[in-house]
Design goal:
Elements lengths: L5 E12 L7 E13 L7 E9 L1 E2 L21 E3 L3 H20 L8 E13 L10 H4 E5 L2 E3 L4 E4 L11 E6 L3 E2 L1 E2 L4 E2 L1 E11 L15 E8 L26 E6 L13 E6 L6 E4 L12 E9 L4 E8 L10 E4 L9 E10 L5 E18 L6 H6 L9 H26 L1 H4 L1 E3 L15 E2 L2 H7 L8 E4 L3 E7 L5 E7 L1 H7 L3 H12 L9 E6 L4 E6 L6 H5 L7 H20 L12 E3 L5 E3 L11 H6 L3 H17 L4 E3 L7 E3 H10 L17 H14 L10 H8 L36
Parallel strand pairs: 25-29
Antiparallel strand pairs: 1-2, 2-3, 4-5, 5-24, 6-23, 7-10, 8-9, 9-23, 10-22, 11-22, 12-13, 14-19, 14-23, 15-16, 15-22, 16-17, 17-18, 19-20, 20-21, 26-27, 27-28, 28-30, 29-30, 31-32, 33-34
Length: 746
């Protein structure tokens, strides 16, 4: 006989009702039901009712009605038998034994039913909201994508954007589509056709000499509707937040040759499977198509799921369906699809700019699914039709006998206790379980089970990153809100000697602060074993991954990030609070690349409270902001290993001072930006960084003054020609300044 395991849930509820115009009674309903059986798919529901008479102190005025309908004010307190706990204990003894007997009857697994097709059809002859009022509901625009009502098209990037360089955007159908059958491991079949135009006439006066555009457009199949990829050669498909298991499929129409990605030319079609590097590339000129000629082109993509076969056709819009495909080959998408995926388009620009216009789009999909038929065999049939069933085992008969005996004892004890209850009972008011509604985004305390469910049991697949204090996880709350969860490590908590009361107090203070450039705290969890902080989730990740990873972050965005962080710190200091953890990994970017400052350096230890208040205060935030400003301009970390010597570390603060002494600060600027940056702004930011890192805390500017410096509203005080001896290395985090020179944080 196959061994089975069962999960049991016990529920109880109390209901007051009247019976035969007598005293009201409490009706106890005990429900025990099965959540999951390992080997047999059937549900067992068991309900036992026990009527316990109550003695009212003051009768309800509606006592003569067959059913009570008294409001809260008219329901009197009742005397409940104090032996009720004994009865509940006996119920727990009886029900598992009875359930063990019932489960043994078993049922056979439901057979699979007939095959059916799950289909989806999308049709957008144009994108005019006047002709299709649901266009804003059906499509989700991310990043720098815009719906143009005047032309009835979708544009990536938005033509109203001041700087079209290094922009990325997505347009996604807002509902997921079934594209994979997990039972048969078979991809769905789909066909899509769309017309598009690539306009390269976007050269401005600042782009003199650049007469051709880049980078390209893609048709994408992705697992979520939140991620916006990186600009430039990434074509808005992927970014640094996407891990190696990020399932995505794309067909790219690329107008820029990137040798590092293996592109054959600047006019090709590529198939990308979970990577920016194309597995297959096809020359678009083989179909007589040149993407950058300004004409409207049409693409047809057909995929046969059961046969794992793809066909791609290209032509001019308005021409007949091409008989010969541009590309036709076997292709297995099983490893790159989930059951439900999102479909749409992404596009991006790099140093060279162009506008990607999506004019029309049709999409159809069909996937097989099997219906599950109800079982023809039930437990009741097996119990009644004894002649057709296997003979009961002696052990089951013994269990039934024990269950009947205990049930009889429960009834006898219940009658006996009720006869003695009048003088020995106590008054117990009925509880009011109603709770006041809570705003959905108000910070609150979470249970560890809620957080474990949101992160799928702290799965490694949900890990966003880690530092010395703990690990960041991506999570999804039951209300659909995406959050970033920081789980502090046990090693850190033991070494820091966490004072949980102080931690909760500081969390409460910081969570009440709201500013567009500060990450909202959604909640926390603090018990004997876990200390967790829940932040709002930003799909574009942290600044360090954009700044130090492969690729280039354009200067205009770097400068905007600095201003955003400065304004957030200025607001925080105005509330008499300090961040205490200002660094590039604590700065996050939303879908529009607005910078928000998070991952607060909360105070954990009671012993360190005076130290935190005196040293890691507002002036320490100013120092760290200065270091971060130099990192953003230079595109390098504060301390890096010297690859040439292989022995020494390079101190960024030393480099900036040395270049200033030689009057060559412009050489500090990230070389990857080449000459595409504002040298006046870059040198000004470096001087602000040097001013923020002086040893004397009183000499450092306030964040309010830093904001004025960045907005060109106030002149920067003159710095010495050479680095003063009193300046200290930036990495001296344990001795930022002496107590005599630090301003106490109040």
């Amino acid at each position: 006989m196959t061994q089975e395991s069962i999960w049991i849930t016990y529920q109880a509820r109390i209901r007051i009702k009247a019976k035969n115009n007598d005293n009201p009674v409490v009706d106890f309903h005990h429900n025990m039901f099965k959540d999951e059986l390992n080997h047999k798919n059937h549900v067992i529901s068991l309900s036992l009712q026990f009527l316990v008479p109550l003695m009212p102190v003051n009768r309800c005025p509606h006592r003569n009605l067959p059913h009570l309908h008294c409001n809260k004010a008219s329901i009197p307190p009742y005397k409940i038998n104090k032996n009720l706990s004994l009865m509940g204990f006996l119920h727990f003894l009886v029900i598992p034994i009875f359930l063990a007997v019932v489960v043994d009857c078993g049922t056979e697994t439901n057979p699979l039913g007939p095959v059916t097709n799950v289909t989806k059809h999308l049709s957008f002859p144009n994108f005019d909201p006047n002709k299709n009022p649901r266009i804003h509901h059906d499509l989700k625009l991310l990043g720098n994508a815009k719906l143009s009502p005047q032309n009835g098209i979708i544009q990536i990037p938005d033509t109203q954007t001041q700087d079209l360089k290094f922009q990325a955007g997505r347009v996604i159908y807002s509902s997921p589509i079934r594209l994979f059958d997990p039972h048969t491991q078979t991809p769905a079949s789909f066909t899509t056709t769309f017309s598009f135009q690539i306009n390269t006439n976007t050269t401005t006066a600042s782009d003199a000499g650049q007469t051709q555009g880049g980078s390209g457009l893609t048709f994408i199949i992705v697992p979520d509707e939140l991620t916006v990829g990186r600009p430039g050669p990434w074509l808005g498909m992927l970014n640094d937040i996407c891990d190696n298991n990020y399932k995505a499929v794309a067909v790219e129409f690329d107008t820029r040759r990137n040798i590092e990605f293996g592109d054959p030319n600047d006019n090709h079609v590529g198939i990308n499977l979970g990577s920016i590097v194309s597995t297959t590339t096809i020359n678009a000129s083989d179909a007589g198509v040149f993407f950058k000629d300004g004409s409207i082109h049409r693409a047809w993509i057909s995929y046969n799921g059961p046969n794992r076969w793809i066909e791609i056709r290209l032509g001019s819009d308005g021409q007949d369906y091409p008989i010969k495909p541009l590309f036709s080959s076997p292709l297995d998408l099983s490893n790159f699809l989930r059951e439900y995926m999102f479909v749409g388009f992404s596009a991006s620009t790099g140093n060279l700019t162009q506008i990607h216009n999506i004019i029309s789009w049709n999409f159809s999909s069909a996937s097989e699914a099997r219906l599950r038929l109800p079982s023809t065999e039930t437990c009741e049939r097996k119990l009644v039709s004894l002649s057709n069933t296997v003979r009961r085992k002696p052990t089951n008969a013994f269990l039934v006998f024990i269950a009947v005996v205990i049930l009889c004892l429960v009834v006898v004890l219940n009658l006996y206790c009720n006869s003695k209850r009048r003088e020995n009972s106590s008054l117990v008011p009925l509880p009011d379980n109603k709770r006041r509604p809570r705003p959905p985004n108000k910070p609150r305390r979470f249970a560890i089970l809620e957080i474990s469910s949101a992160t799928r049991g702290f799965s490694e697949e949900e890990v966003l990153g880690s530092d010395l204090k703990g690990i960041f996880y991506r999570g999804s709350l039951p209300n659909g809100c995406h959050v970033a969860i920081k789980r502090l490590s046990t090693q850190f908590l033991n070494s820091a000697g966490v004072d949980r009361l102080r931690f909760l107090k500081e969390i409460s203070r910081v969570s009440r602060v709201r500013h567009p450039n500060l990450v909202p705290i959604r909640g926390w969890c603090c018990d004997r074993r876990e200390t967790i902080v829940i932040y709002e989730y930003f799909s574009n990740g942290s600044l360090d991954k954009w700044l130090f990873a492969r690729g280039v972050l354009q200067w205009s965005r770097r400068f905007k990030v600095l201003k955003d962080v400065a304004e957030g710190l200025c607001f925080l200091h105005g509330k008499k609070l300090a961040h205490k953890n200002v660094k590039t990994s604590s700065v996050f970017l939303n879908v529009s690349f607005r910078a928000v400052l998070g991952d607060f350096g909360l105070a954990f230890s009671r012993a360190d409270s005076n130290w935190v208040e005196s040293v890691l205060g507002q002036k320490a935030d100013v120092f760290e902001f200065g270091m971060m400003a130099m990192e953003i301009v230079a595109g390098r970390r504060r301390r890096e290993w010297d690859s040439e010597s292989g022995k020494e570390e390079i101190d960024l603060l030393d480099i900036v001072w040395r270049m200033r002494e030689e009057e060559q600060l412009v050489k500090v600027v990230d070389r990857r930006m080449r000459t595409i940056f504002n040298s006046v702004q870059a040198i000004r930011v470096l001087e602000i960084g040097l001013l923020c890192t002086v040893n004397e805390a009183k000499a450092r500017p306030s964040m309010e003054e830093v904001v004025e410096f960045l907005n060109m509203e106030k002149a920067i005080p003159e710095l010495p020609q050479s680095r003063p001896v009193a300046l200290f290395p930036y990495n001296s985090t344990t001795d930022l300044c002496s107590f005599s020179s630090c301003v106490l944080f109040k």
